[in-house]
Amino acid sequence: MNLHALYAIALRQFYLMRGSPTRVLPIFAWVAVDIVLWGFISRYLSGVSHGGPDFVATMLGAVLLWDFFSRVMQGVTTAFLEDVWSRNFLNLFASPLSVRSYLGGLVLTSVLASLVGLLVMLVLATGVFGLSFASYGLLLIPFMLVLFLFGIALGIFACAMVLRLGPASEWLVWPIPALLSPFAGVFYPLATLPPWMQAVGRALPPSYVFEGMRSVVAGDGVSSAALAAGLGLALLQIALACWLFSRVFKQAIRSGLLARYSAESVA
Amino acid sequence: MTTADPSLPAPVLTVRDLCKRYGDKRAVHDISFHVAPGEIVGLLGPNGAGKTTTINMVLGVLEPSAGRILIDGFDVSRQRRRALAATNFAAVYAPLPGNLTVEQNLRIFGLIYQVRSLQARIEALLEQFDLLAFRDTRCGLLSSGEQTRVCLAKALLNRPKLLLLDEPTASLDPATARDIREQIRRIANDDGGGILWTSHNMVEVEEVCDRVMIMSQGRVLLEGDPRTLAQEHRADSLEDLFVRLARDPANSAEQREAAR
C-alpha cells in the first residue's frame, strides 16, 4: 500500500470539508439529533417504568453505537461519491494509484470523520443524558471495533455497488443501515425475531455487539466466543467487500465502464 | 504499422497488435505503433475512429481484447503501477475536480504520483503555465483555457516519459492554443518525453507533430510526416487527405495497398 496515495485521498477529503460547511455539518448534525431524540425517549421511558430496565444505558447506548457504525460506513461511501460527483475516476485510475491504496484512503478518511461524530455523540449522551459507559468497561473497545469493521465492510460493499450500477444507484446506499437495523437487534434481543430474521441477524456482526451490550447491562456478562464470532465475521466481510470491489473494478476496466463512467449508464 | 528502429533510443511507448472488441463490434483493430523519446506523434481520425479507445487502453483504464502495450518498457496489463508512474495525460473530458483549488489538485495528484520536492515542482508548474494568480481558485471557476492549463500542469507533475494529450487545445482560443502548442513542443525538446497527441486541427498537427497516424474505423490507415503526407497521397492538404479517408476509409486503404 502506497502511504503517499493513501494520504492524498484523505487530504482531498480534508480540503473539501475545510472549504465547505455543508460537508462538515452532516458528520455530527444527524447523530446529534438522534442522540437528543433518543435521549429524551429513554429518559421518559425510565421515568414511567420505575424499577424497570435501564433505558438510558440500553436504548441510548444502542443508538450511539448504531450511529457510530452508520457514520463509519457513510464516511467510506461519501469519500467515494466525491469522486463520482466530480467525475474524477479517469484522473485517479489512469495514475499509479492502486485499488488497495484507494480503498485504504477511503477508510482513513472515514476513521477521521467518524471519530469527530463519535466525540459529539459521547459529549451529548454522557453530558446531557447521563449515559455512562462504566457498566461496559473495557468491553466497549471490542464492541466498537466490531461495529467499526462492519461499517468499513459495508462502506466498501456500497462503493462496489455504485461502481457497478452507475452514479444513479447512489440513492441505494443511504438506506442500507436502516434496512439492516431490524435484523441486527439494535433495540431488542434476536430471539424476538422470527427464525428467518434471526438467521439473517446472526450473519450481521452488530447483532453480537447488541446482544452482548444488553447482557452486560443486565449484569450477566458477555460471551467472549460470541464477541469473537462477531469480530471474525466482520473481518471476513471486509475481505469479501474488498474482493468484490476489486472484481467490479476489473470488470469496469474490461467493459470500458470506468472510462465512460460519467455517462451515468448501467453497463 | 511501424516498428522501432534498433539504432534509435528505446521507445517510450510500444503498442503491438492492439485490439478492442465490444461484442461483435471492433473499436480498435490490430494496430501497432511506437512513440520515441522526444517525439510528438499525432493520432488523427474522425469521431468514433478509435483514438480515445486507444488512449484509454494505453492509460490502463480499458482492457484490450488482444495485444500488448509497453510504457518505458513496462507492460501496462502486468506492471500497471510502474507503467502508469512513467506516464500522464490531459484530456478535455477529464477535468480536475472543480471543487478543489488549483494548488490543492496539484498537491493531491503530486502525492499520488509520488513527486519528489513536490512544493517546488508545483511552484515551477504554476509559473510555467501562468497559473500563479489562480493557485487558490477552485478549478470549476476557471475558464476552459485556464482549466486546460491546469490539466497540463497536472500532466507534467511527474515529468512523464510518455504524455498523452487528447485534444488539449479543443476549447482554446487561437492565441492560447498557440501558447500551449509552444509549451508542449518545448516539453518534448527539453524533457525528452514522448507525446501522443490527438487533434482535429490539421494546421496544429502540421505545426507540432513529428509524425502522424490517421485512424478510421479502428485501424491505422496512414502514417508519415504531416508536412509531406498529403503530397505523397496526391491530396491538396492534410485536411483534404483526412476528409478523404474519413469518408471512404475502405477505398482509401485499398488505394494505399495498390500504391505499394
Give a brief outline of the structure.
Helix content of chain A is 74%, strand content 0%.
Helices and strands, with pairings:
The complex is a heterodimer of chains A (267) and B (260).
Chain A: H1 3-18, H2 21-48, H3 55-85, H4 89-93, H5 99-127, H6 140-165, H7 176-184, H8 195-202, H9 205-217, H10 224-255
Helix pairs in contact in A: 1-5, 2-3, 2-5, 3-5, 3-6, 3-9, 6-9, 6-10, 7-8, 9-10
Chain B: E1 13-22, E2 25-35, E3 40-44, H1 51-58, E4 66-71, E5 74-75, H2 80-85, E6 87-91, H3 102-112, H4 118-128, H5 144-156, E7 162-166, H6 174-191, E8 194-198, H7 202-208, E9 211-216, E10 219-224, H8 229-232, H9 238-247, H10 249-259
Parallel strand pairs in B: 3-8, 3-9, 6-7, 7-8
Antiparallel strand pairs in B: 1-2, 1-4, 4-5, 9-10
Annotation keywords:
heterodimer, A: 267 residues, mainly alpha, 10 helices, B: 260 residues, Rossmann fold, 23% strand
Structure description:
The complex is a heterodimer of chains A (267) and B (260). With 267 residues, chain A is mostly helical. Chain A has one domain. Helices cover 74% and strands 0% of the residues of chain A. Chain A is built from ten helices and no strands. Chain A has helices spanning 3-18, 21-48, 55-85, 89-93, 99-127, 140-165, 176-184, 195-202, 205-217, 224-255. In chain A, helix 3 (55-85) runs antiparallel to helix 5 (99-127) and helix 9 runs antiparallel to helix 10 (224-255). The relative contact order of chain A is 0.13. Chain B is of the alpha/beta class and 260 residues long. Chain B has two domains: 13-86 and 161-259, P-loop containing nucleotide triphosphate hydrolases (Rossmann fold, 3-Layer(aba) Sandwich); 96-159, no CATH class. Chain B is 38% helix and 23% strand. Chain B has ten helices and ten strands. Chain B has helices spanning 51-58, 80-85, 102-112, 118-128, 144-156, 174-191, 202-208, 229-232, 238-247, 249-259; strands at 13-22, 25-35, 40-44, 66-71, 74-75, 87-91, 162-166, 194-198, 211-216, 219-224. In chain B, the strands form two sheets. In chain B, strands 6-7-8-3-9-10 form a six-stranded mixed sheet, sandwiched between helices. A four-stranded antiparallel sheet of chain B has the order 2-1-4-5. The longest helix of chain B has 18 residues, at 174-191. The relative contact order of chain B is 0.16. Chain A binds chain B through residues 2, 4-5, 7-8, 11-12, 15-16, 19-20, 82, 86-98, 250, 253-254, 256, 258-259, and chain B through 22, 53, 56, 59-63, 80-82, 84-85, 88-89, 91, 93-101, 104, 107-109, 111-114, 138, 154.
